[in-house]
Specification:
Helix content: 25-40%
Largest sheet: 7 strands, antiparallel
Number of strands: 12
Structural class: alpha+beta
CATH class of the largest domain: Mainly Beta
Strand content: 25-35%
Order of helices and strands: HHHEEEEEEEEEEEE
C-alpha cells in the first residue's frame, strides 16, 4: 500500500512539473525530482548511475547557461548606462552631423562643411529660409576638391540679424557645364538627450531634431 501511495505522489508531482513552462524548473525542483526518483525506484532495478550522472551534468549545464544569461543582461544594462552617461556629457557642446539644414549656434551663427568630389570652377553657398528666400549667399569662386568649411553670422550687410531659426543650405558647384554633387554637414548644439524607458536607443536632442550619437561626425 505504501508503495502504491508513493507511486501516486510521484505521478502527481511529475504532472505538476509538466504543467510548468519550458525552462521554468530551478535547482529545488530538480533536487525534489531526484529525491522522489530515488525513494520510489525499484530496489531490484535501481536507476543506472550513468543516467544519474548524465542528468546531473545536464542540469549543471542548464544552470550555467542561465547564470551566463543573467550576467549578460547585467552587462548590457551597465553598457547602456555608460552610453547614456557619455551622451549626457555632450549636452551644451556642438556636433557635426550630415544635413542640408543648419540650425543657429549659441552666438546665432551658422556653420558646416561641404565635400567637393572634384575641382570646381564655380562654388557658392546660399542660406535659404522656410519661405524659399535667400537670406545670404557666399560666392566662393573656383575651389579644389576636398572638404571645405562654410559659415555665416546670421546677419545682413547692415549688421542686422535676419535669421533666427533653421535654414536650408543650398550649394551650387560646377565643373564646366557639369553640376557636382556636394554632400553637406552642419554644426548643431546638443540641448539634451532622450533615453526611452523601453530600452530604445539614446538620441541627442539638437537644433536639427533628435539624432543618434552615431550620426555625429565630430564633437566640439
Amino acid at each position: 500500500m505504501t508503495a502504491v501511495g508513493s507511486s501516486t505522489s510521484a505521478t502527481a508531482g511529475a504532472a505538476t512539473t509538466a504543467t510548468k513552462a519550458a525552462g521554468a524548473m530551478d535547482q529545488n525542483d530538480f533536487l525534489r525530482l531526484m529525491t522522489t526518483q530515488l525513494t520510489t525506484q525499484d530496489p531490484f532495478n535501481p536507476v543506472d548511475n550513468t543516467q544519474m550522472v548524465a542528468q546531473m551534468a545536464q542540469f549543471s549545464q542548464v544552470a550555467g547557461i542561465a547564470e551566463i544569461n543573467s550576467s549578460l543582461k547585467t552587462l548590457v544594462s551597465s553598457l547602456g548606462g555608460g552610453r547614456i552617461n557619455d551622451a549626457a556629457s555632450w549636452i551644451g557642446r556642438t556636433v557635426l552631423a550630415e544635413s542640408d539644414v543648419a540650425a543657429p549656434l549659441k552666438d546665432g551663427s551658422y556653420a558646416g562643411e561641404l565635400v567637393l568630389p572634384e575641382d570646381a570652377d564655380q562654388l557658392s553657398v546660399a542660406y535659404v529660409n522656410a519661405d524659399g528666400a535667400i537670406l545670404h549667399e557666399d560666392v566662393l569662386g573656383p575651389q579644389t576638391a576636398g572638404t571645405l568649411p562654410f559659415a555665416w553670422d546670421g546677419k545682413n550687410a547692415e549688421g542686422e540679424t535676419v535669421a533666427t531659426g533653421p535654414v536650408k543650405i543650398v550649394v551650387t558647384a560646377k565643373a564646366g557645364t557639369e553640376t557636382l554633387e556636394t554632400p553637406t554637414a552642419t554644426w548643431t548644439v546638443v540641448g539634451g538627450i532622450q533615453s526611452p524607458a523601453n530600452g530604445g536607443s539614446t538620441k541627442l536632442l539638437t537644433g536639427l531634431g533628435a539624432i543618434s550619437p552615431d550620426a555625429a561626425l565630430r564633437l566640439a
